[in-house]
Amino acid sequence: MLSSHAGRRRMDNIGFFFLNTFLFCTCLASPPNFVLLFADDLGFGDLGCYGHPSSLTPNLDRLAAGGLRFTDFYCTSPVCSPSRASLLTGRYQTRSGIYPGVLYPGSRGGLPLNETTIAEVLKPMGYATAAIGKWHLGVGANGMFLPTRQGFDQYLGIPYSHDMHTHYPQYAGQGAAGRTLRGPFGDALFEFDNTIGNLLTTLEKTGVTNNTLVFFTSDNGPELMRLSRGGNAGPLKCGKGTTYEGGMREPAIAFWPGTIRPGVTHEMASTLDILPTIASLAGAKLPQVMLDGVDMTEILVNQGKSKRETMVFYPTDPDEKYGLFALRLGKYKAHFYTRGATHSGTTPDQDCPVFAVLKAHDPPLIFDLEADPSEHYPLPLTGKPDLQALLERIKKAKEQFEASMVFGESQISKGTDPDLEPCCNPQCIPKPSCCKC
Predict the structure, then answer these.
(1) Which of 56, 301, 366, 430 is 20 to 30 Å from the Cα of 34, by its Cα?
(2) DSSP 364-419
(3) CATH architecture observed for domain 6-308+407-435
(4) What would the pLDDT profile of 222-250 be if each residue is shown by its tens digit?
């Protein structure tokens, strides 16, 4: 039953990528409940409702049919930990220090305790909170960085990615194995979808569906290096690890019967916007810090215009020397730097694998994402006064954003300590090899 004790309900095994579920529930009659579903390494083109011809995702398709499907929704990083930090705080990962790369078992750092999460925003309003699934924002000494130290009442899950167990190959249980046309990836995705179906059934049985916002999205693009078992970015360029669209544009669905009308929005939005939106809907106060998110209630309730004018793209290893790799302004995206990634290897596109080394672009490569979401055809700037004016607007937006950015101390650069690694035999030696029970 989804109630103040929601975190006690065990989630089903969901195969290759974890479904990170954040539950925010209140016992009061009027404030809404929130269920935030965050997939791992799910590509823009992986779901049936986003056009994949052989994916079996009936529950997510049902959410999309009855809710609002986004076509231009972004995460903030093409890898896990920094993306998750931004989701929970409404701030780019560069501010909280969750860079470069991701946290590992034994990492000394984690999401700083002085960062304010969605759970901490809602607690003063009487919400009960739970996190279920993959965390990937640190453990630390005595579990100091776990969800229960970050505003969540309860936590059931694993602290890191399961590629620090087995991220690959995928797994599907008896109810899903061999059930789809898409092989092991499709079977695991089907099991993932079944888990969401079980959650929706619970909402219906407890009679809270009409008072609950369910929001689904993913943390970064697909791991294309795994070929057909690594996900699909649909028409978008490259995938995980890159700042091309395939690395950071994600499927997203908002479902709230009676409040959100079914439809599709092409407005630009981001995981950064979830915290201020939930705060607005709950009547909660925003953290007194520099937020990068904007309230998207107008998009959800009225299918109106977005308050978001820009989206910036940092690489997996951001630093102040290079700054932004790319910036989107309206329908245009400018690449100041491009680089491939190991995660996006094996594709025919030579811009995607790790062998595509860092390139600076001055002037930047500019793409019209409405006409060319695949980023194939940079706009010709020479002899085009209107595009020259656009370039100046893009440069100004970049300067203004970077002037506002104060890089937080890197938590990932603090290194690792084997004694901090989760261990099934805490007194064993030598660590970490003896922990593999």
Answers:
(1) 56
(2) EEEEETTT-TT---PPP-TT-HHHHHHHHHHHHHHHHHHHH--PPPPSGGG-B-GG
(3) 3-Layer(aba) Sandwich (3.40)
(4) 999 999 888 999 999 999 999 999 999 99
